[in-house]
């Protein structure tokens, strides 16, 4: 399991909170790590036994989350055996030693993470499902909706990743890739009615041999479509145009012309962005279309969807009380069990939180980056993606962030960078482990593109976990070196020396990469 394999990894994950007030999202995340994630230390006997021994709804909820994590861990240990039944309900009830109610709630969460699904009937049980990007796309859309990210921010991130993919493809393709690219172009040219213009983008990313790049390209392609009404999806004229552009991109890749491939990809994406900008994209649609609640029309999911829509339409009033459990059961005309299941799903997505006791009820919370991190981490683990691959994507994203910072820096940005450096320099050696990546997060924040910021933070966190899970905590770079390099990077940025800043950042990322290897 990707999640904190050791207390060290866990500490590393919340480093940002030690960095000060800059990161609203990180503070939220840290809150949630302490308040709602007993699952941060999966299967911890203290958590499970402690919760089981106490009666009360809050503890039952935590217990369900913790059992869900144990189920996922157990499936991970078995190597994600797709299609296999890992146990019938009675077997699993016995294995995990919990009540049927808690177990079913845990299963709902596992289903929601798209790891396994309960199959009823003879020979039924908990079946491992194929990996899917849906849960990642859900988490990303909830977050982007909340922070108000616009479609042009998604495109800017796509440009960064897909230009890199086009540029890397020529030197990395093998004969199977060549055949696949040729076949795809031929299929698009023939006007196959079932063609999906995203296939080419996926295929070019796959040609780089970097599954992390493939994952994020696919993810952002999907997220782009979430901003659009169905009617704005490509018609046959647009598909013909994109087929021509795709053919030109593939020709450049097959010719081994990296610069041309990159340039053609850029032009193609810019044309697509211009087209889609004219089709009334709206971040509001992230809330309409989000699969934050499953596609099945079960009662609990329908209720979760209603609550989600209500929160979104109210402008996401963080801290607002939506009602007591009794109020909500009446309002949505559902049983307690159904409401609790709905709440569990929404808590998983960091939309609401149920507080027990006097003055309690269902409250709107601030979605953190943690839900996205969790979903990406799970996917990365299932796909067996290596830290090196994550790092390559991180490098691309961070260089784009740097360019953006240099192009748009204002006084406020300067102040934030200076402050981040001061905090690093003032940190004690023990604290440095916690704030040592902060400059990267602050740069991403100052860059002002919420999608790039999300990617930066998630990539840093997921690669830290992945490295820790694979090899124990990796040796960090010596603290003084990092402080020095960070300072030199910031100096070049403040001096508006783009070439030098880029050079220093590139060197720094290469040095970090050596720690990942
Ligand atoms: Zn295309
Ligand atoms: Zn650094």
* Beta-strand segment tally: 6
Helical/strand content category = mainly alpha
- Any idea what the shape is? globular
CATH class value of the domain at 385-516: Mainly Alpha
Let me know the largest β-sheet: 3 strands, antiparallel
Helix content estimate: 55-70%
Please give the radius of gyration in angstroms: 23 Å
Low-confidence stretches: 1-55, 289-297
Number of helices: 25
Strand order of the largest sheet: 1-3-2
Query: What is the CATH superfamily of the domain at 385-516?
Result: GntR ligand-binding domain-like
Secondary-structure blueprint of this entry?
Blueprint: H1 7-13, H2 24-36, H3 45-53, H4 57-77, E1 85-87, H5 89-96, H6 100-112, E2 116-119, E3 125-128, H7 134-147, H8 151-172, H9 175-189, H10 198-207, H11 211-226, H12 236-254, H13 258-277, H14 284-289, H15 299-313, E4 321-323, H16 325-332, H17 336-348, E5 352-355, E6 361-364, H18 370-383, H19 387-408, H20 411-426, H21 429-435, H22 438-447, H23 450-471, H24 479-494, H25 498-516
Antiparallel strand pairs: 1-3, 2-3, 4-6, 5-6
Bound molecules: zinc ion (2 copies).
One zinc ion binds at residues 439-440, 482, 486, 508.
What does this molecule look like?
The protein is mainly α and 517 residues long. Helix 6 (100-112) packs parallel to helix 17 (336-348), helix 7 crosses helix 11 (211-226) and helix 15 crosses helix 17 (336-348). A hairpin with a 5-residue loop joins strand 2 (116-119) and strand 3. It has helices at residues 7-13, 24-36, 45-53, 57-77, 89-96, 100-112, 134-147, 151-172, 175-189, 198-207, 211-226, 236-254, 258-277, 284-289, 299-313, 325-332, 336-348, 370-383, 387-408, 411-426, 429-435, 438-447, 450-471, 479-494, 498-516, and strands at 85-87, 116-119, 125-128, 321-323, 352-355, 361-364. Among the domains are: 41-124, Arc Repressor Mutant, subunit A (Orthogonal Bundle); 150-277, GntR ligand-binding domain-like (Four Helix Bundle (Hemerythrin (Met), subunit A)); 385-516, GntR ligand-binding domain-like (Four Helix Bundle (Hemerythrin (Met), subunit A)), CATH 1.20.120. It starts with 6 loop residues before the first helix and ends with a helix. The strands form 2 sheets. A 3-stranded antiparallel beta sheet has the order 1-3-2. It has a 3-stranded antiparallel beta sheet with strand order 4-6-5. Helix content is 69%, strand content 4%. It is globular. One zinc ion binds at residues 197, 200-201, 242, 246, 268.
